Amino acid sequence: MYDQMAKIYDYFMAEVPYHQWVDFYETFTKKHSNPSVLDLGCGTGEMSFRLEATARKVVGIDLSAEMIEQAKNKKQQTSSVIFEQANLVQLSLDEQFDVIVSFLDVLNYITEQEKVKESFQRIRRHLKPGGTFLFDVHSIEHMNQLITDEIYSYITDELSYVWFCLPGQEKGEVHYDLTFFVAENDGRYKRFDEEHTQRTFLVHQYKQWLEQAGFSKVRVYADFNFFEESEEGDRLFFVCEA
Fold first, then answer.
1. Pairing state of beta strands 217-222 and 235-241?
2. Residue ranges per domain, the chain?
């Protein structure tokens, strides 16, 4: 997953409003002055580099070696972000952090309940006392009603793709079949295919698992509205205090 896609990921994600995730981060981390930050599922490092502006240390991890390679290649000499290949479900670092984030529905790629629970427990152990864990996921309604059975396409001279969204075997699960055509220097196009699966769970399940992992307070917001708590929306944002 993301093996071949890593090289075109930034092009593919060019229209993503990363600044809105930065707003989410800044809204709920004001109590942390010059924090250490762990970015889970950092991809090519786009969020890690943005978070570095207000952090004394940023570590980004991703399961994909190819994504980590792209992140390291983008890193400027003035940047101190540390990138490592690691599995979120098996997270085992030798330090704790003030803030841990997992943005852009990374946690939806963990499709088994027990592995989600294990991930929350490991994340909690990597947070300092009083630390904050921020993440976002697709809602059940969004997965079931708006994504399932949809077909997305995108065509430019440099890159084209067709994206099929198929219902998974479990509630809240969606399987993605993606076909890409990438322009080569000789004018021909290279085709490659990827398959991804995401799954989301009910809000009360996430809350229960977070509380079992040792988080003392969990708040939920929806669709980038951080002024009032809400559990109804397409994308849900969790604010978890250690």
1. antiparallel
2. 5-139+201-241, 141-199
CATH topology of domain 141-199: N-terminal domain of TfIIb (2.20.25)
* Bridge partners for 132 per DSSP: 99, 241
Q: 97-132 burial string, b = 16+ CB within 10 Å, else e?
A: bbbbbbbbbbbbbbbeeeebbbbbebbbebbbeebb
To the question of pTM greater than 0.85 for the whole model, the response is yes
CA-CA distance, 81 to 52, in Å (whole number)? 7
Q: Which tens digits make up the pLDDT trace of 44-76? A: 999 999 999 999 999 999 999 999 999 999 998
Cα–Cα nearest to 197, from 215, 170, 216 = 170
CATH number for region 5-139+201-241: 3.40.50.150
